[in-house]
Design brief:
By secondary structure, the protein is an alpha+beta fold. The protein contains two helices and five strands. Strands 2-1-3-4-5 form a five-stranded antiparallel sheet. It is globular and about 40 Å long. The relative contact order is 0.22.
Length: 92
């Protein structure tokens, strides 16, 4: 159970679009522009922005979520099938 929410699905799931596709498959958009490196990639499930994870130097996926209000990402790594909500800091 998330703090402040009743048991049940993450209320931010409403932001998830089923038809979202990566805008830059296999690369972090912002790292590509700034010639930075990344560790792992995350896909915004609202707009398709690909950003780097919190273990990466610039944490672009989290920054994107905070700046534009798109709370849920999924791993863009091969073989990983999980989603994360930055608002609730929990799996979604």
């Amino acid at each position: 159970m998330r703090a402040g929410y009743p048991a049940g699905p993450d209320p931010h799931i409403a932001f998830v679009r089923e038809d979202v596709t990566p805008r830059t498959p296999g690369v972090c958009e912002a790292c590509l522009r700034t010639r930075s490196r990344w560790v792992h990639l995350r896909l915004c499930l609202t707009c398709g922005q690909v950003g780097c994870c919190d273990s990466s130097p610039n944490r672009h996926a989290r920054r994107h979520a905070a700046l534009v209000g798109h709370p849920i990402v999924r791993s863009a790594e091969p073989g990983e099938h999980w989603r994360w909500c930055y608002v609730d800091e929990s799996f979604a």
